[in-house]
Amino acid sequence: MKTLIIVIHPNMSESVINKRWIEELNKYPDKYQIHDLYKTYPDGIIDVNKEQQQIESFENIVFQFPLYWFSSPPLLKKWLDEVLTYGWAYGSKSNYKVGGKKIALAISAGIDEEDYSPTGKYRYSLNELTKPFEITFQYVKADYRFFYAYYGIEQNPSTKDIEGSVDGYINFLEMFSK
């Protein structure tokens, strides 16, 4: 069963990690379908029906994005607001079309992991910063499965580290899709 990878990166041409992850995922078209929101909707106008139909056709969904102001890029928030509609994704008369689907996040964070801790520079862990996503997916009765994160690309942009992130991401996706 294929996994839908919804990529949300506002400047993919300058990306290091997310671009490399997509290159690797494209080697496995039988396993992963890439859906780049910024490429699909450069004007920010989302085709809600198209998005809902796509979500309905997958059981495994991963949202891939860089950590952006301690959250996601703005198009993901807009996507969540517009696509997860009352009656379709939640509500007293809902069919819960996202319900039961396995959902995860794949996040690239430019800063080292220790900076995302109670004693670190930003005082909060990535787990704490992603709670709004977890709650959102629980609210629509999806099967939220946590996240994969790669930390520190701003300080450590070596080829070895980048390739290590690819291996980690692919392993995460393999375990996620079982």
UniProtKB/TrEMBL annotation:
> Per the record's keyword annotation, is Oxidoreductase included, yes or no?
yes
Listed A to Z, the keywords are: Oxidoreductase
Q: Which SUPFAM superfamilies match?
A: Flavoproteins
Q: Which residues form the Flavodoxin-like fold domain?
A: 1-165
Q: Which GO terms describe its molecular function?
A: electron transfer activity; FMN binding; NAD(P)H dehydrogenase (quinone) activity
Kindly give the Gene3D superfamilies that the UniProt entry links to this protein. Answer: 3.40.50.360
This protein is called what?
Answer: Flavodoxin family protein
Organism for this UniProt entry? Dysgonomonas capnocytophagoides
